């Protein structure tokens, strides 16, 4: 027990240190942008454009430190790709961490971290971010808990237990609503952009450091990989319906980036994560929506 507590504390400390380094790098980038604007103003040069400055909160789709399933150890996720898209790529303060569920992302310590970021003027050019990017919901479902949402295959059930799954989605939806409320208090008017993942392939593929997240539960509940694909497709389609409903309410100021159906089977590195070029395709979806929603 003592060893487990020590390991957990060490892990938490490493995450905090990693996030702190990201914040320092972001502040330095903002300082350079601010100085460049001030210099242009002193020379009576009109600054027409500047990069979007955004806050990102999320899971491994925003914080994936692997190339496919292994080396080199370098971020290849949506945020890493988005930072390279366009003539003027966005500047993003990334607070995401792989493995986080929505309930982790909106837990007390993570909300405190977001509040500290949003209320620190040195993180932003005009007092607040242009947008908040959110990746959440996948880890609330995938993993050892996935079996909770499956019927046991005795020949008389369909696979995904919609009643139990919908109840879990209610918790995920509550996390989105809490984020909207936090934004309304601290950064009113800032739009939030989320996504609906893509149709994962539950074949047991995983990197050496984590997973698999889907196939063990399917095996446990006596479902084949072929049927598992149908179950996962149904679950993700149901998740998308929930996000679309949130996006349809203008009061939420929330935009769903429709990422389902983007990746080919060859663009999945494992059950849950794309290869770098796959992440790039997802990032381009974000870039396209941002270009139409933020003027």
What descriptive keywords fit this protein?
295 residues, Rossmann fold, five-stranded parallel beta sheet, 9 helices
Strand-and-helix sequence, N→C?
HEHEHHEHHEHHEH
What about the largest sheet?
A: 5 strands, parallel
In the CATH hierarchy, the architecture is 3-Layer(aba) Sandwich
* Secondary-structure class: alpha/beta
Unreliable stretches covering 5 or more consecutive residues? none
Using the coordinates shown, work out and report the CATH topology. Rossmann fold
Task: Going across the biggest sheet, name each strand in turn.
Answer: 2-1-3-4-5
Assign the CATH class.
Alpha Beta
Alpha plus pi helix count: 9
> Got a strand count?
5
How would you characterize this protein structure?
The protein has 295 residues and is α/β, with parallel strands linked by helices. The protein has a single domain, classed as Rossmann fold (3-Layer(aba) Sandwich). It has helices spanning 2-42, 78-82, 102-105, 108-118, 138-141, 162-186, 215-220, 225-248, 276-293; strands at 53-57, 91-94, 131-134, 192-195, 254-257. β1, α2 and β2 (91-94) form a beta-alpha-beta unit. α6 packs parallel to α8. The longest helix is centred in the N-terminal third of the chain and has 41 residues, at 2-42. It is globular. The mean pLDDT is 94.
Any chance you could write out the topology, listing elements then pairs?
Blueprint: H1 2-42, E1 53-57, H2 78-82, E2 91-94, H3 102-105, H4 108-118, E3 131-134, H5 138-141, H6 162-186, E4 192-195, H7 215-220, H8 225-248, E5 254-257, H9 276-293
Parallel strand pairs: 1-2, 1-3, 3-4, 4-5
């Amino acid at each position: 027990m003592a060893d487990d507590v020590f390991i957990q504390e060490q892990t938490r400390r490493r995450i905090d240190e990693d996030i702190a380094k990201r914040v320092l790098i972001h502040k330095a980038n903002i300082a350079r942008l601010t100085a460049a604007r001030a210099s242009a103003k002193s020379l009576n040069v009109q600054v027409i454009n500047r990069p979007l400055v955004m806050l990102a909160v999320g899971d491994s789709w925003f914080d994936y430190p692997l190339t496919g399933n292994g080396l080199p150890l370098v971020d290849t996720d949506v945020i890493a790709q988005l930072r390279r898209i366009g003539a003027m790529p966005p500047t993003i303060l990334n607070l995401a961490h792989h493995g986080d569920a929505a309930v982790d992302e909106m837990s007390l310590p993570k909300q405190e971290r977001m509040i500290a970021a949003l209320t620190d003027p040195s993180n932003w050019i005009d007092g607040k971010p242009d947008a908040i990017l959110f990746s959440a919901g996948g880890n609330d479902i995938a993993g050892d808990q996935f079996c909770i949402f499956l019927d046991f295959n005795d020949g008389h059930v369909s696979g995904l237990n919609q009643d139990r799954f919908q109840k879990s989605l209610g918790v995920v939806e509550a996390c989105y609503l809490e984020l909207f409320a936090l934004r309304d208090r601290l950064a009113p008017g800032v739009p939030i952009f989320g996504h609906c993942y893509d149709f994962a392939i539950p074949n047991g593929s995983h990197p050496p450091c984590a997973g698999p997240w889907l196939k063990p539960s399917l095996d446990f509940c006596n479902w084949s990989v072929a049927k598992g694909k149908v179950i996962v497709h149904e679950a993700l389609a149901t998740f998308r319906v929930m996000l679309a409903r949130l996006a349809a309410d203008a009061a939420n100021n929330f935009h769903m980036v429709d990422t389902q159906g983007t990746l080919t089977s060859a663009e999945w590195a494992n059950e849950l994560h794309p290869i770098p070029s796959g992440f790039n395709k997802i990032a381009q979806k974000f870039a396209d929506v941002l270009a139409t929603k933020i003027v």
